[in-house]
Amino acid sequence: EVQLVESGGGLVQAGGSLRLSCATSGFTFDNYAITWFRQASGKERELVATITGGGDANYADSVKGRFTISRDNAKKMVYLQMNSLKPEDTAIYYCKLNKFARDYWGQGTQVTVSS
Q1: Cβ–Cβ < 8 Å for 78, 95
Q2: What is the percent of the chain where pLDDT is above 90?
Q3: What is the rounded end-to-end Cα distance, in angstroms, of the chain?
């Protein structure tokens, strides 16, 4: 059974940092890209960053230079290091796997950035 579990969210002041983690199981981790999304209250879910099985990363323009996605294939974990946080980064953050045309989502972790 595929599972993704996010952790590491919390309340932080603007300019601060958080590191989110996505623990995975139930699939051959090395073979798949993992994507972080976020959804702010009243807004659509948006892509934040993606990392391929080989470690290539892509970012939304809104987070480039501030966020870093990484993965540990031995631990089957994906991380999102978030620096220079802004109030507009406040959202629920989700990690997602797409496997055989099906999306698997974690339950999300809340990030709140105070001004």
Answers
A1: yes
A2: 98
A3: 40
